[in-house]
Amino acid sequence: MKALTIWTALRRYVQRSIYRKILLSFFFIIFLTITVLVANFYSRTAGDLRRQSIETTERLTQQSADTLGLYLNNVRNFAWSYFGDKDFQGFVLGLGSDPVAYSDYTGKFNQFAQDNPIVTEIVVSQLDGFSLRAGSSTAITSQEERERLEGLASEENGKGAWQSSQTYDRQSGTMVNTLTFVQAVRNISSYSPGPIIGVMTYELSYSFLQQWLGEAAGGGTSQFYIIDWENGNVVYSEQQAMINQPMLDDSEIADVHGSATAGYFYSRARIGGEASEGLALVAYKKLPGTSWMLVSWSSVQSLQQPVNDFTKRTLILGCLCFLVAIALAGVIARRIVIPLKELNRGLKAIEYGNYGVNLPIRSQDEVGYLSTSFNRMAAEINRLILKVYETEMVKKDMEIKSLQSQINPHFLYNTLGIIDSLATMDGNRRISAISQSLARMFRYNISGGDQATLAEEMEQIRLYLYIQQVRFEARLDHTVYVEPGIESIRIPKLLIQPLVENCIQHGIRPSLSGGTVRVEATMNEAGGIQIQVWNNGCPIDPERQEWLSGLLQAGYKSGLEAGASGEGASGLPRESIGLRNVQSRVRMVYGTGAGLAFESNPATGTTFTLTLGTVSDGEEAEHENDRA
């Protein structure tokens, strides 16, 4: 009854305020969303990561075991090659009596140790007699340890075997554990295996094994051990204190023996039989030719650490989202109270001439409708004022440009006429010819209309090339060709000159031997005009080709955006501006099917191809320009 009373009081407390309703709604929405997301992510990601970790650890263990097995088998095979060698048996019988053979076998064993850095020392000894030592070992094996190894080799009765051994490391000044391969040598005859006459021992490098185990672990969360397959004791480890300590309990050893030679399981056992703090993933694979297996030990907690970290970050982010949601709920509650105050401030702003005021629309009720209507009215007034202002500015700018377009070209044209007259009086025909060509080019530029015939445009190109011919003399040769029947087709003015100028500046000018510029205008199969500008000067380097391709591909859009915003293209090189403008003008007149393309290589030169669409497209564009 008391609980019901408290619940009723809480409901009344919440229902009295919409602010509290919003806060409570946000609380449940965020809490439910975060809970579902975190639970779903953890259930999916944790399982995937656990499987990936197991597969990665198992694969790494198998690859490491295969690599170590290759090292061990290489040593075994080398030792076995001498086991049945009659000459070597004779050498062991008379060890120390033949200096030439002693030197020869010493060289062979030294070469094997040099080719296989895992082997640090090779010893061939008679039973209680002379011995041969080879390799680069810095360790010393005691006489007792060597006698133990020779006894183990004799017990194997001619079969090679790997054994754990101890040696004194002179660099560290301590006893260290390593691995040694022992192989008895028999005096084999055609009738019997013969008696044992000596022993071969191949001692592995302690430092190499330490380094290899560290590299196999990769500096990660895994640790590698060489474990006895039969009793689960550590045969070799980076931590010398762990050697000969039990790692697997009886049940785990039974599971390993009952499964394949490779696999994995989970364990809580630890070195010396102590229980670990958490569950560990143990992956193993038997080393071929030995009674050992390579085992990797990885803490499950460390493998799942990324998932745990992400879960913590998700919870923190969820709490932050909750706090932000509560703050937003407070803002929403305030928006219900203050719209009328904002409308009053907006009216005062209009009175003071601030027509750019814009009230936020906080609701769809009557107050929201008033705010919307106010914003629409203020925006319309502001738009009309700006339109009148912009119209006046554009009108003044056009008047100024009109005056400049009338004064500047005529002034330059008259100036060129004076230069021509002076050059003729002084007998300088080259200056006179250049002045006349420039005057004709200026007259063409200031003539009315935005379009000209193809013949007029090509004449303009001939004048330009003539001026460049005077400049470059014998370094420049040029041809201009127009297919008969298309001379009267009208195209945008000054469309081809930027392409020819680009060829001169980047193809002919940098070339010491100069080159040829060829301009051709033909009609393609689709009925459109195709203009090709070719030169055999310096080609365009691949990096600049890629840049130009991107520029031309975006040229039309960039041109429109620059024109709309009133911005220039001062950030681009002059010739790049010209090429981009050509692309923009062609596509604005003829559509996106037309445009500028190029190809360049040292073998065939550089060709710019300008496709202008069909003749009907050009005529239609001309009429549209005339109407404009």
Automatic annotation (TrEMBL):
PANTHER family: SENSOR HISTIDINE KINASE YPDA (PTHR34220). One of its GO terms (cellular component) is plasma membrane. This is Sensor histidine kinase. It comes from Cohnella fermenti. Keywords: Cell membrane, Kinase, Membrane, Phosphoprotein, Transferase, Transmembrane, Transmembrane helix. Residues 334-386 form the HAMP domain. The chain crosses the membrane at residues 21-42. It is found in: Cell membrane. One of its GO terms (molecular function) is phosphorelay sensor kinase activity. It is a multi-pass membrane protein.
